[in-house]
Amino acid sequence: MFLSRLRLPSSETQSTLTCNGQAAMSGGCGRNPPPFPDNEDQEAELDTRVLDSDEDDDDEGEDIFTGARSKPITPTSAPDEGDIFSEEGSYIRSDVHHATNGLHSDEELDLFTEATVELTLTNTTSQGRREIIGPTASACNTTHVPNSILKPSIVTKTMEELEEEESGDQFELNIAVTNPEKIGDGMNAYMSYKVSTQTTLPMFLNKTFSVRRRFSDFLGLYEKISAKHSLLGCIIPPPPQKSVVGMTKVKVGKEDSSSAEFVEKRRAALERYLQRVVAHPSLLQDPDVREFLERDELPRAVNTQALSGPGLLKMINRASDAVNKMTIKMNESDNWFESKLQEVENEEQLLRRLHAAVDSLVNHRKELCINTAVFSKIVAMLGSVEENSALSRALSQLAEVEDKMEQLHQQQAFSDFFILAELLADYVRLLGAVRCCFEQRMKVWQRLQEAQSTLQKKREAEAKLLWANKPEKLQQAKDDINEWESKVSQYERDFERVTCTVRKEVLRFEKEKARDFKQHIVKYLESLLHTQHRLVKCWEAFLPEAKAIA
Amino acid sequence: MVRSVSVDLNNDASLVIDIPDALCERDKVKFTIHIKTTLSSFQKSEFSVPRQHEDFIWLHDTIVETEEYAGLIIPPAPPKPDFEGPREKMHKLGEGESSMTKEEYAKMKQELEAEYLAVFKKTVQVHEVFLQRLSSHPMFRKDRNFQIFLEYDQDLTVRRKNAKEMFGGFFKNMVKSADEVLISGVKEVDEFFEQEKIFLLDYSSKIKDATAKAEKMTRSHKNVADDYNHISGAMNSIAADNNTAFKKHLEKCAEVFEKLRKLEDRVASDQELKLTELLRYYTRDIQAAKDLLYRRARALADYENSNKTLDKARLKGKDIAQAEENQKQCLRKFDKLSESGKKELTSFKARRVVAFRKNLIEMTELEIKHAKNSMSLLQGSIEILNSN
């Protein structure tokens, strides 16, 4: 039986209704609200005044406020939109240290002005417009990516760059994937992306260069890398997933927000994929990677079906099954590998759960967006019917505020998705790749075991021959033994090397993961902060309107 | 103590009513009504009495049935307390307790408590305003049944039953669906009432719509708050294992989400109390105003009928005196309704504007407060994360 009691002490209700004592009285004074402070000094003052009544208002008796009472940071106003656009359009970086101004003929440079790790608030202008990412009608079949769904993407320094930076080296490599363009028509159409590189590394022919690639090229790159490096125990970043539904919409030419969103999602995913690839020190050295970045025309990658999303997943799962079926248990000198693998598997599950929760958030935020827009319209209608003119005006203003709210929710949903949800999705798949590399090691070990047992058999065979005294076959047996002895020592070396590599890889991965998450969490919190800040501004602008009702 | 949807209701110190306390037991809610009065018609100057929702309904119905009040806007009856949402949650909680982790259980319990609290606040507010509307109205405050409601120191259940038998629901049983047709069909001679009719009919449908849409919007806010809750829980699960930097970041982030959830919940429930409840209340109040127009329209129809009857009587030369008397009475009734109706509708306008003003101001101030608190929280957390 549920028994609950509601007790409302008089002080509590007092403050619920009137934000602070003064408000009740000013309500009586009528139409002249105190002038609204619009500079930072007074903002802080307002802050504390509002906070005084918090204690009273808090039903649950908890103090939910952090100690920090610093003044709210106003976002630095966006530099001219022209600053960050190349003639073909570019993506935006949120960057206070933005050095360049105005359009440059050498557009490549614009994309890469110093991206600092310390990411600041996103670059939406105070009018709430969103910058354009994508072509500005430079080619006939361009897919125009509508303003409403675009958002600054994150450009971070690559892992290597950060490490080099720390060690004081000069090397630098930045990659961006931009300018999605639809080539062709109908079911044979495809999206082509511009892959731009800026680097000081000597192994490249130029300092800045760009090429155009299509999705299957990325999958082809993955295939090549995987074939070469996975056997060594490297963690190979998985490519973005294929999507038949998404791509078909684009091919068919459906120019709505959902297909634009799909293209943007894919563009961002391809960019992150490449950034992870070049962050890996050995992969960066791979000539295939270099060719991918530099070469003008790539031979068309075929047989990428196997590497489509479900295909890749199937591959990974098949590998897991095979390993699970292994009844031979590895006797490890230390528990590190076994417990680490367990950790990875657990974390993968938990990340999936987290991803699902964030996904739900994205959807609910989008719903909130729609419901707010609908509400805004009805409030406008109510305002138009209202006979009292001041109330009518206030209601129309309220409708406008709710309209702005809708835009804010829309932007926030974007951040929820691109900063948080995609990060989690990436890491779920990356953890799968980590598992793969553990499995690789087990395969190598198994091969060693088999070779050792074959060697054993050969030795036994030789012993038998000696005993049976058949000298003509003895030479063969001795050759066999030699062959297998060298195989065994080869495989022993392989195993040691794989073990060492996997260990290193996992440690590198974990460092990168910690850094990645921290960066994204901070960026996400900044996006929330930005939204709340805009919220405050909207409501503060409305307050005098509400007070003017008479 | 003044509740938001209607203002200036407790200004008159001669009769001050509030509901400081409420108890929820299974299905029933018991409100503690607290009265302070200087009126001699009451036995004590300060006292409290427990009442159930059904008692409020009884009081409302008796007032509606009272012919004397036909020219007044009758304060809308408070809706039945709806604990369906929290009850469902409680059920889920009970069923799933064994399968949930301790954290999940604690979180669900938190959500449940927050919802209960929100429903409580709403229902107390709306019952209180009902009584305050009565106590602040010159005619209603003198109503005999109102006094009984406030003073009778025993259970009203028995009296309620008797009342039902007495009245038989005369006005209530009238076909309500016909009222709009009747109101719009009547030939209006009075400009004031003509305008009122047009305005109320239009406003009524729009405010009903606005209420429904505000509800949907608030619901979405609550869903977002719930998601923050789940995200926080999931992050904590990941962070539970060991002490790496990664886990520390997630733990911090989980903490932020937990606090954001509380703030978002506040935003949702404040929006509900100030905006949605305001719209809901005035949807019902507008209906009460329309009911007044309806009663007046009926009186006008009766008057017109009485004219026809009188003409017929004159023609036939029979029952003229009776018909004349009837006609006079109808006219008197109609005039009385028109006069008091005009007053009521005028003060209703003013009351509505003041209530909207108060609520919009309060809602805005609360939104600003919550957003600024969110900002502080986020800024502090960003600083901490960056300094690690």
UniProtKB/TrEMBL annotation, chain A:
PANTHER family: SORTING NEXIN, SORTING NEXIN-1. Keywords: Acetylation, Cell projection, Coiled coil, Endosome, Golgi apparatus, Lipid-binding, Membrane, Phosphoprotein, Protein transport, Transport. Residues 53-63 have a biased composition (Acidic residues). It comes from Cyprinus carpio carpio. This is Sorting nexin-1. Residues 171-300 form the PX domain. Its main location: other. InterPro entries: AH/BAR_dom_sf (IPR027267), PX_dom (IPR001683), PX_dom_sf (IPR036871), Sorting_nexin_N (IPR005329), Vps5_C (IPR015404). Residues 10-23 have a biased composition (Polar residues). Residues 474-501 form a coiled coil. Belongs to the sorting nexin family. The keyword Acetylation applies.
TrEMBL record, chain B:
Residues 1-156 form the PX domain. GO terms for molecular function: dynactin binding; phosphatidylinositol binding. The keyword Transport applies. Coiled coil: none annotated. One of its GO terms (cellular component) is cytosol. Belongs to the sorting nexin family. This is Sorting nexin 5.
